[in-house]
Amino acid sequence: MSQLYIVTVLVSLVIGGLSTWYVNSSQKKYRSVTTSTGLTGQQIAKNMMEHYGIGDLPIRRGRANQNHFNPRKNSITLDPHAYGSSSVTAIATACHEVGHACQFAQGYLPMKVRSALVPVVNFTQGSWFIILLVGVLLNVAGLVDLALAFYAVSLVFHLVTLPVEFNASRRALEYMTEIGIADQEITGARAVLRACALTYVAVALMSVIYLLYRFVRHSRIKGRM
Q1: pLDDT the model gives residue 5
Q2: CB atoms within 10 A of CB 105
Q3: How far, in Å, CA of 55 to CA of 72, rounded?
Q4: Is the pLDDT of residue 3 over 80?
Q5: Residue 34 — φ and ψ, nearest 5°?
Q6: Confidence label for 69 from pLDDT (cuts 50, 70 and 90)
Q7: What number of other Cβ atoms are within 10 A of residue 166's Cβ?
Q8: Closest of 218, 207, 115, 199 to residue 152, by C-alpha
Q9: Is the pLDDT reported for residue 223 higher than 90?
Q10: DSSP the chain
Q11: Backbone angles phi, psi at 179, to 5 degrees
Q12: Taking a C-beta distance cutoff of 8 angstroms, is the pair 50, 101 a contact?
């Protein structure tokens, strides 16, 4: 096992572990802080949709940690806490997902690009490692190059995801400010959303590191051929 591989794994583990810890810590801290409005995540999500005139989208109650906007069904799913609680974490999460719904309704370009990449990424993510393995076993440099190109598509997807997530959080905070959420609650919501956004930064960074590792290793092997 090469030193380069060990360093790559360790750096990725540290980045992933720290980002997970930061998210869990921030969400846990503000789960116990109730907002002055008394609105649950589901209620404030409906109010935000009405405020921006994007329609009365269905809001589903999902499983634990299941929070997302589905552009195909044009629906929002919130986990039990975000759906039924009036905590800072709950309303920040709900408004963030409505932020995605606003992006979709308004044709936000990065979201359109991200959505267009989904089927491509689904294919490349499911096949790049198999192609890489075959290329390494058969010593076919072209297949390894193809595998790295497929992996690079996933990296592009992660990079495009960043502005989508940051923009949804900005929309959430702007709405919460407009309706008069207390400053200290806005501060808490900002902390929660920043922590969640950093997980996407961490994923993108780990993808960059791994791609660089594979590229350097492949270049060394080709140099010996």
Answers
A1: 67
A2: 16
A3: 15
A4: no
A5: -85, 135
A6: very high
A7: 17
A8: 207
A9: no
A10: --HHHHHHHHHHHHHHHHHHHHHHHHHHHHHT-B-TT---HHHHHHHHHHHHT-----EEE-STT--EEETTTTEEEE-HHHHH--BHHHHHHHHHHHHHHHHHHTT-HHHHHHHHHHHHHHHHHHHHHHHHHHHHHHT-HHHHHHHHHHHHHHHHHHHHHHHHHHHHHHHHHHHHHHTT--HHHHHHHHHHHHHHHHHHHHHHHHHHHHHHHHHHHHHHHHHH-
A11: -90, 5
A12: no
- pLDDT tens profile 166-210: 999 999 999 999 999 999 999 999 999 999 999 999 989 888 888
128-148 residue pLDDT tens: 888 888 887 887 778 888 888
- The set of catalytic residues is 97
Determine whether 83 is exposed, middle or buried from the number of CB atoms within 10 Å of its CB (0-12, 13-18, 19+).
buried
Contact 60, 108 (CB under 8 A): no
What does pLDDT average to over the chain?
Answer: 90
